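User: For a teaching handout, I'd like to show students what a predicted protein-ligand complex looks like in token form. I'll give you the sequence and the SMILES for NAP. Please answer with just the structure.
Assistant: Understood, here is the input followed by the structure.
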Amino acid sequence: MKTFAVLGNPIKHSKSPIIHKLFSEQTKISQKYIKIYVPINNFYKKFFHFIKNGGIGANITIPFKKKAYKLCDFLTRRAQYSGVVNTIKILESKKILGDNTDGIGLLKDLQNLKFINNTSNILLLGAGGAAQGIIYPLIKFGCNVTIVNRTYQNAKNIINHFNNIKNLNCLKLEDLFIINNKIKYNLIINATSSSIQGNIPNIPSTIINPDIFCYDLFYNFNKTPFLKWCIIHGAKKISDGIGMLIEQAAYSFYLWHGIIPNTKIIIKKYKKYNLY
Ligand SMILES: NC(=O)c1ccc[n+]([C@@H]2O[C@H](COP(=O)([O-])OP(=O)(O)OC[C@H]3O[C@@H](n4cnc5c(N)ncnc54)[C@H](OP(=O)(O)O)[C@@H]3O)[C@@H](O)[C@H]2O)c1
């Protein structure tokens, strides 16, 4: 049986194996899909060990997406633009193809939820692999994106990566506290990993209002700490990242098997039976 995996650290919380099992059942394509915990300095060793033992495709998650980009022989156009890779396919030639399905997965979920339109002004929290991977599709869709990150230099690095592309800018965290009443954001996306440790990014609560859409890339059985905080400060329209996870997984499945699963059915099933 063809073997796939998700590699990351931490990895215990990952729901990718359940989602891929649902895709397999739906499409009748059998695949083995496992979780691999990767010690922080051991990504390349673990990855090549998996490939040597028959692995033919992988999802790469926190915090290895930039490292994954570096080991690819070929890149899809969207992976090339984003500079980060979350999906890998081993080609028949044994060369490594890298893709990024996070951005398209997020955009699809935001559209399903009606959280976005082509004039949305977006505040993006975080400047890690996930943040970098989602920017290009959002800008291409027509949105304006402002990055705010705990470490300002990491946000600056993303701006440089995209060559100062139009509609993308970054702010220092302290400046967000100064200008927060002057700029209206339609959508706030938490792409930090703060929720994993039960923390909330440090941003002014005055940004939150009943009209703003609040989206956390993290997902949880209970509401994520960030979404709880948004509700306390008046948000009415919130979502965690389970829809994105399923949408991005579907594009990975497509890269590996050439079939795109029906995600609407899976998202409905996931939420109905609380498969978190
Ligand atoms: N739903 C989905 O399909 C999906 C897909 C991809 C990722 N994700 C989620 O997205 C999140 C980020 O993943 P990633 O791959 O981008 O991780 P990453 O590359 O390790 O980046 C982590 C980011 O979070 C920031 N951060 C960490 N702890 C923080 C805290 N306590 N307060 C404020 N900022 C903090 C870091 O800031 P510094 O730069 O200052 O270190 C960095 O910007 C994770 O929760 C992951 O599970 C979800």
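For the handout, you might add this sentence: Residues 62-63, 65, 102, 126-131, 149-151, 154, 191-196, 199, 201, 217-219, 241, 244-245, 248 surround NAP (CB under 6 Å).
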